[in-house]
Amino acid sequence: MANAQVLFETNRLKLREFNGNDAEGLFQLNLAPEVQRFTGDMPFNSVDEARSFINDYSHYQDYGYGRWAVLLKETNEFVGWCGLKYIPEFNDVDLGYRILRKFWGQGIATEASVGSLKHGFQQLKMDKIVGRAHAENLASIKVMAKTGMWFEKAMEYDIGPTLQYAMSKQKFPS
């Protein structure tokens, strides 16, 4: 598990399945209040708890995709995660991302998101991908808009008032 294969690359990033080496990065990511503010997720209590999450993460086996570790190409440094998640209650595929605070403002979430959309449409043959963000999470909403996703609807979700954006295979620039 330590050397998970790179699924795809962007100009500056590599995305791959999580492995045990990502436990410290996931722990730090979930520890940051500014990263967790709009997620509704509880922080991990330890690096071991983050490692257990990775070991128990079954989306790759269950659906053939999931959230992926995002690494800088030049240094292999863990910068966060991005990827696709099947949401059974809505029967849709959700684009999600979280980036360590020190990498904010560099376009990494947008770059990783565009790569994930491309992978979803071209490799995984998906027809539609949605993204959801708390209505006050302006940075995340901006990322979705920059990817070319369009506003689809306002809704209530587990994180509170939520805006849903969408992208279809037909509208995705190839």
UniProtKB/TrEMBL annotation:
UniProt keyword annotations, A-Z: Transferase
SUPFAM superfamilies: Acyl-CoA N-acyltransferases (Nat)
One of the record's GO molecular function terms: acyltransferase activity, transferring groups other than amino-acyl groups
Residues annotated as domain N-acetyltransferase: 13-170
Organism ancestry: Bacteria, Pseudomonadati, Bacteroidota, Sphingobacteriia, Sphingobacteriales
The organism's place on the tree of life at top rank: Bacteria
Pfam family, one: Acetyltransf_3
UniProt xrefs under InterPro entries: Acyl_CoA_acyltransferase, GNAT_dom, N-acetyltransferase
The name this protein goes by in its record: N-acetyltransferase
Keyword S-adenosyl-L-methionine: no
Organism: Solitalea longa
